[in-house]
C-alpha cells in the first residue's frame, strides 16, 4: 500500500471515532463548574472536532452521479409496504452509513392487527404484536455472507408520542456509535461486481447464515425484528459499494414488483405503496 493510500485509510479509520470524541466533549462541558475555563474550552473544542469528523465522513459518502440501478430480487415474500425509500426522494435516509438509496419495509396488517400510535401511553408495544416480526428475510441474489451480528435484543415499538420523542434522542446517541448500534442485528451480503447488500433490524437469534457462507437467491437469511434504531419491526434494506457502511457509497437498485392493482413495475415502489414480488430480477 502506498504511503498516501495508507494515510487516507488511517484518516478514515480515525474519523469513525467521532462518537467517543463527541462524548468526551459533552462530558467536559457537563462536569465543568468553573465557567469559561480550560475544561469548558476543551469540551467545546472536542465537540467541534467531532462535528467536523462526522461531516467529512458524510461528505465522502455522497455517491457519484449517473449510477445505474442494480437489478436485484425483493428480499421479502408476501405483501409489504415501502417507507422512507428512494422511490420518493433521494437521499431516502441520509448519505451517512451508505443509506442514500436505503428503503424500509413494513408488513401491513391484514387479518392480524398492529399497535397504533397512542398519544401518551404506553411508551411502546411488544415487538411480537407487530405482523412484521419474525417474517423471513431473503437473499436478493446469489452471494457470500461477509458480516453478521445477531445478539442485540428486540426492543419495544415506539408507538406513542413520548416513545417517538425517545426514538429521536436514542437515534442520535446510536449514530455516535458503530454501525451495529444503528442497525441492530444485521447481515451484509456480497453480491459480486463490487455490490453489497445490507439487511438491518433483524430478530435476535434468527440468523440462518454465517460469515463465509455462500447463499442462493431467495434463501432465508434471518427474520425481521426490531433491534437497533427502529420504531417498529421492519426490514431496512440497502445496497452499498463496499462491506463497511461507514465508508461505502449507497447504490441504487431496482426490483420487479406488482402493486395492489396487479400492475408490474421495474424499479422501487414509492412510499406507502403496497407491493409484492414479481419474480427475481436479472443480474445479481
TrEMBL record:
It comes from the Bacteria. Residues 170-241 form the M23ase beta-sheet core domain. InterPro entries: Cell_wall_metabolism_enzyme, Dup_hybrid_motif, M23ase_b-sheet_dom. One of its GO terms (molecular function) is metalloendopeptidase activity. CDD domains: M23_peptidase. SUPFAM superfamilies: Duplicated hybrid motif. It holds the Pfam family Peptidase_M23. PANTHER family: MUREIN HYDROLASE ACTIVATOR ENVC (PTHR21666:SF270), PEPTIDASE-RELATED (PTHR21666). This is M23 family metallopeptidase. It comes from Streptomyces liangshanensis.
Amino acid at each position: 500500500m502506498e504511503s498516501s493510500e495508507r494515510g487516507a485509510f488511517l484518516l478514515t479509520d480515525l474519523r469513525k471515532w467521532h462518537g467517543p470524541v463527541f462524548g468526551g466533549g459533552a462530558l467536559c462541558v457537563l462536569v465543568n463548574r468553573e465557567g469559561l475555563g480550560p475544561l469548558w474550552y476543551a469540551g467545546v473544542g472536542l465537540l467541534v472536532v467531532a462535528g467536523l469528523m462526522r461531516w467529512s465522513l458524510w461528505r465522502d459518502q455522497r455517491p457519484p452521479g449517473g449510477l445505474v440501478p442494480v437489478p436485484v430480487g425483493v428480499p421479502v415474500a408476501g405483501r409489504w409496504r415501502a417507507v422512507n425509500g428512494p422511490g420518493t426522494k433521494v437521499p431516502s435516509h441520509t448519505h451517512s452509513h451508505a443509506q442514500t438509496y436505503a428503503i424500509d419495509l413494513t408488513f401491513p396488517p391484514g387479518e392480524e392487527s398492529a399497535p397504533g400510535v397512542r398519544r401518551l401511553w404506553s411508551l411502546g408495544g411488544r415487538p411480537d404484536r407487530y405482523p412484521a416480526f419474525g417474517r423471513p428475510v431473503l437473499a436478493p441474489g446469489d452471494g457470500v455472507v461477509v458480516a453478521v451480528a445477531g445478539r442485540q435484543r428486540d426492543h419495544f415499538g415506539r408507538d406513542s408520542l413520548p416513545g417517538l420523542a425517545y426514538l429521536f434522542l436514542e437515534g442520535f446517541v446510536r449514530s455516535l456509535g458503530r454501525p451495529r448500534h444503528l442497525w441492530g442485528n444485521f447481515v451484509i451480503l456480497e453480491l459480486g461486481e463490487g455490490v453489497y447488500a445490507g439487511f438491518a433490524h433483524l430478530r435476535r437469534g434468527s440468523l440462518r447464515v454465517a460469515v463465509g457462507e455462500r447463499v442462493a437467491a431467495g434463501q432465508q437469511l434471518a427474520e425481521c425484528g426490531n433491534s437497533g434504531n427502529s420504531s417498529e419491526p421492519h426490514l431496512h434494506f440497502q445496497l452499498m459499494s463496499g462491506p463497511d457502511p461507514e465508508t461505502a457509497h449507497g447504490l441504487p437498485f431496482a426490483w420487479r414488483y406488482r402493486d395492489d392493482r396487479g400492475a408490474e413495475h421495474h424499479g422501487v415502489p414509492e412510499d406507502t405503496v403496497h407491493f409484492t414480488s414479481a419474480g427475481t430480477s436479472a443480474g445479481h
